[in-house]
Amino acid sequence: MTDLNIEPASRLVPARELFGIDSSMRVPVFLTPSEQVPEIDPAYRFNPEVTLAILAGFTRNRRVMLQGLHGSGKSTHIEQIAARLNWPCTRVNLDGHISRLDLIGKDGIVLRDGKQVTEFQEGILPWALRRPMALIFDEYDAGRPDVMFVIQRILEQGGKLNLLDQNQLIHPHPSFRLFATANTVGLGNLNGLYNGTQVLNQAQLDRWNIVATLNYLPQAEEVAIVAARVPHLLARHGEGLLASMVAVADLTRQGFAAGDLSTLMSPRCVISWAENMEIFSDPALAFRLSFLNKCDEAERPIVAEYYQRCFDQELGESALPLLALA
């Protein structure tokens, strides 16, 4: 991909073949991978509806936003699809430190022929727009207003970026794609769980062609993911232990939905619990260090009850004999 104006060679592959979904869609797969292509995670589980939404973004150049609770794998879902399409991908976290200059670019001092000269250094948007690149804006609803209006310029299909300071009009590469992930889909921080998120401009939100919701997986699939991430734990203690762990996580999610808890266990947290269990060799201790200590003190008895119901033991007890640390 030395010439950025050339469309990379690709072939059309049935989505059913790549992702195991019931669809007749055929998706382009680049023949030559680059260093920006994410690595394939063979253990990743694809949500059929969300997969179709993301594939529509890749095949039809639609702007796709994924909304959902933390730890549900929104960004990873996009990356894993890009990995199987050999599509270069980069992520930008729209935290409060990302400025307009970070996106557009700014003048910087560089050394040319032994002399310091001022030269324009392009930001992430011009860099990505010129390339066959899937650009993902993480935490999209946490972006600053001045940053969001810069992004609005490229949200429309074929949207061009005008660098006024450089007197340049950048046309997007034919294989440039734009995605975003958000926890609140632009409605603001209604429950206090996602402090720092903003209410999105509805005119901008309307420019996203597709908005999909990614929820947590069914328990059996989540158990399979944890087992794939921590195979040593599965081999040592069997699937029953992992099923109990996921059952605890599911109870915290039900408690959160009912208003009994102010936080919940994401799949990411369950995997951390499993990984910590390999370190500490005690599910109760690993649970306290992985999740319980993050909870409000007034809510910890509720979480302890969830643990007792799933493991049939008090949280203060060890559900497994302590093992010698390796």
Automatic annotation (TrEMBL):
Pfam family, one: AAA_5
Top-level taxon in the UniProt lineage: Bacteria
Gene3D superfamilies cross-referenced by the UniProt entry: P-loop containing nucleotide triphosphate hydrolases
Record domain AAA+ ATPase: where: 60-221
Gene Ontology molecular functions: ATP binding; ATP hydrolysis activity
InterPro entries assigned to the protein according to its UniProt record, in alphabetical order: AAA+_ATPase, ATPase_dyneun-rel_AAA, CbbQ/NirQ/NorQ/GpvN, CobS_N_dom, P-loop_NTPase
PANTHER family according to UniProt: MAGNESIUM-CHELATASE SUBUNIT CHLD, MOXR FAMILY PROTEIN
Protein name: Cobalamin biosynthesis protein CobS
